Each structure stands twice: as C-alpha cells, then as structure tokens.
C-alpha cells in the first residue's frame, strides 16, 4: 500500500471494529475473564493506543510502535529503557534542547557516559569505544537543519552492535523513513507534524518488536500514556499527514528561493539548497527536504523584535510542524538560558530565526515576511 493510503486506512484493531473510525474507548477498566488479558492505559495496550501505534509503525515500515503523551515521554522512556549505568551514549551537539537537558540532568546522574559530536560520520565513528551501546541523532537538526548520513551511520553502528536512534520529528514520516535506511529506532514528537494542528501533545516510537517491547515494559514505570481522545485526534490528523506535509514542503521550497535572494538575508539554512553541506545525501535519504528552515539576517540590518511584532499572518511561536506558518527566535526562546559563550559556539545569534512553513498561500506568507522586513529594517 502507498504512503497516502496508509495514512487514511482505518486500522481494525479488533474484529468488532467495522467503522471507518475507531470508537473512543473511554474506559480504564476491561473484563479480564473473557480475553485473558489486562487492557489498561498505562500498559500502553488499549485499543485506541494500539490502533494509532500500528498506523504510525506502518508509515515508517517498522515492525511495531508505541505512542506516548509527549515527545519527551517517548525520548526519556526509550533512553531509560535501553541504557544501563556504565554505558556510553553518543549524541549530536545540536539536538533538541529537552533531550540535551534530559541527558545532562538525568542520564549523567545515573552513570551513563555521554559524548557530543558533530554530524559527520567520521566524527561519530571516532567517538565509539567498547562501552558504546547507543548513538542518538537528529536529522535534520534544530536549528541549522544539518544532515546525518543515516545509511552510513547505520552501517558503522551495526558492525559494532550499537543501537541507533533518531529523533525524526523535523522530517516527519512523509519525508524520511529511517527504519528503511537501517536505523533501529525512530522517535517523534507527535506534537509537531504528526498532529499538525498545534492542538495536541503526543509522541511515538517505532522499531523492531524486540526494542518496542522493552520500551513498553519500562513505559509501565514512567507512565507517559496517551489518553483515548488524544489517540483519536492523532488518528484524525494522520489521515491528512501526507497531503499537509507535501503542501508544506512545496510552500517552503518556493519561499526559500525568495528569502535566499533577499538583499538583507545573510544566509538561509535549508537541506534543499544546493549549497547545503550535505545536499547530495539529502537526495538519497529524504523524499523532500521538509518545511523547516532557518535564516540569519546580515549584521545589524534588522530589529528582530520589531520584525516579529510586524507579522500579521505568520505567528511568532516556539513550536513547529502545524498547518500555520510560525517563526521562532532560538536566541530568545529554546536557547534563552544557554550561556552567551555556548550560544556563540553553536552559532545561536540574535539575528537567527527558524521558520516552520504552513499550508497558507505561499505568496501571502512571502508578502507578510517581506512587509515585516521593510518595517523592521534599521
Ligand atoms: C518538540 C520536540 C521534542 C519534544 O516533544 P514534546 O512533544 O514537546 O515533548 C523532541 N524533539 C524535537 C526535535 C522536537 O521538535
């Protein structure tokens, strides 16, 4: 079945479900006598949870999936489930802030050793030692949309029996299916593209059954389960995932050209640009470069606060992946608490903005941005 059909297809979790939509089973109690099994939300095995996790797993050609109440519940549960004290974990320098905070404030505390690396395969390979049990990456990364060569990473890790994990949030399953490239586990903040309407907080993990069952067992302890109504909303969102993301891709592609040629834009970061550091790899592992892009204005050419305040259609907001275009200043939001020196090292400057392009008419988005640029020019 093609991807768009998998998005729409009703999943029949049980024989009794003959409707196009799975009924919302708002129940925490089920008779155990007839089925012999205990269904309970915190066991992550209710009909609504399994319907949606089955669909997400099928979208990424994975054996099995599990859904959570947030992306961070998915990430923290996966890492806690698969790592032991004494293990060595390799992560990227440029990762989602919440993941870095979890690694720093929790994993290090329980005796997991961590190395931070650049996205190049050679650098990742160089960090591997005999205790390395997991490599976790993002691709594209936030906020500079760097790319990891996922096939090369999978090959390096497989040769040494190391588990590979990707946070695939920025790409979405429409643009990138890491399991097909040899990565073991793919995680999503479903709050972004999967739900797509900026109204739902959820997460998902997909991969081989052997990994998902360990994660599910640990999930019982941490309890970050998704409620039946949100499972339903997520399934409703997934039906339009393909069509939404493709339109977002198209809009982003059109906008990038215009932004890139604007006289006061210094640099655009987007995996679809020929000058992107790994554009040749983007073509081999992504169906499209996505709809998240960052840019830096030329030195002191614009007042960022005035720019943000002058937008009408585009919403200044820290999340992404929704059908509405949003813009965020990493300097003022996600990396606000980071020491100035560290921000400088990472290139998180005041004139950096990250856009998540929505499904509005692309020329309306462009006009809104260009009008705000004119007002905010100094
Ligand atoms: C938002 C986000 C997360 C965290 O997801 P929540 O649903 O907010 O918990 C993790 N990774 C990436 C790349 C994200 O953008």
What does this structure look like?
With 378 residues, the protein is of the alpha/beta class. The chain contains 15 helices and twelve strands. It has helices at residues 3-8, 32-35, 47-59, 71-82, 97-107, 121-127, 150-159, 172-175, 209-222, 228-238, 241-261, 279-285, 304-309, 340-346, 362-376, and strands at 64-68, 88-92, 113-117, 132-138, 163-167, 185-189, 203-207, 265-269, 292-297, 315-316, 326-328, 352-356. A seven-stranded mixed beta sheet has the order 1-7-6-5-4-2-3, with helices on both faces. The chain has a five-stranded mixed beta sheet with strand order 8-9-12-11-10, with helices on one face. Helix 4 (71-82) runs parallel beside helix 5 and helix 11 (241-261) packs parallel to helix 15 (362-376). The model has no long low-confidence stretch (mean pLDDT 95). The site of pyridoxal-5'-phosphate has 15 residues, from helix 4.
Give a brief description.
The protein has 378 residues and is of the alpha/beta class. It has helices at residues 3-8, 32-35, 47-59, 71-82, 97-107, 121-127, 150-159, 172-175, 209-222, 228-238, 241-261, 279-285, 304-309, 340-346, 362-376, and strands spanning 64-68, 88-92, 113-117, 132-138, 163-167, 185-189, 203-207, 265-269, 292-297, 315-316, 326-328, 352-356. The protein folds into two domains: 3-238, Type I PLP-dependent aspartate aminotransferase-like (Major domain) (Aspartate Aminotransferase, domain 2, 3-Layer(aba) Sandwich), CATH 3.40.640.10; 242-376, Aspartate Aminotransferase, domain 1 (Alpha-Beta Complex).
């Amino acid at each position: 079945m093609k991807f768009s059909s998998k998005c729409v297809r009703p999943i029949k979790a049980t024989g009794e479900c003959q409707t196009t939509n799975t009924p919302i089973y708002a129940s925490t109690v089920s008779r155990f006598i007839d089925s012999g099994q205990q269904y309970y939300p915190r066991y992550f095995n209710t009909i609504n949870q399994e319907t949606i996790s089955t669909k997400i797993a099928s979208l990424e050609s994975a054996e099995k999936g599990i859904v959570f109440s947030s992306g961070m519940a998915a990430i923290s549960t996966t890492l806690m489930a698969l790592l032991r004290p004494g293990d060595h974990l390799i992560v990227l320098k440029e990762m989602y802030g919440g993941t870095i905070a979890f690694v720093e404030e929790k994993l290090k505390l329980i005796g997991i050793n961590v190395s931070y690396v650049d996205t190049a395969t050679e650098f990742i390979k160089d960090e591997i030692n005999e205790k390395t049990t997991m490599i976790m990456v993002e691709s594209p990364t936030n906020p500079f949309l760097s790319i990891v060569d996922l096939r090369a990473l999978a090959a390096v890790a497989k040769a040494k029996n190391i588990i590979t994990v990707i946070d695939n949030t920025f790409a979405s399953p429409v643009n990138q299916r890491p399991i097909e490239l040899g990565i073991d586990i793919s995680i999503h903040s479903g709050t972004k593209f999967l739900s797509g309407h900026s109204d739902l907080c959820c997460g998902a993990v997909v991969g081989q059954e052997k990994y998902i069952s360990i994660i599910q067992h640990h999930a019982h302890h941490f309890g970050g389960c998704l409620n039946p109504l949100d499972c339903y909303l997520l399934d409703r969102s997934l039906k339009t995932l393909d069509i939404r993301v493709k339109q977002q891709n198209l809009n982003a592609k059109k906008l990038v050209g215009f932004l890139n040629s604007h006289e006061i834009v210094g640099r655009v970061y987007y995996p679809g640009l020929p000058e992107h550091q790994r554009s040749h790899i983007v073509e081999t592992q992504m169906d499209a470069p996505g709809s998240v892009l960052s840019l830096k204005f030329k030195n002191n050419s614009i007042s960022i606060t005035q720019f943000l305040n002058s937008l009408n259609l585009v919403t200044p907001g820290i999340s992404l992946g929704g059908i509405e275009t949003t813009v965020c200043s990493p300097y003022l939001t996600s990396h606000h608490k980071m020491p100035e020196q560290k921000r400088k090292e990472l290139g998180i400057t005041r004139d950096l903005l990250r856009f998540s392009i929505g499904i509005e008419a692309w020329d309306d988005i462009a006009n809104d941005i260009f009008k705000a640029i004119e007002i905010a020019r100094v």
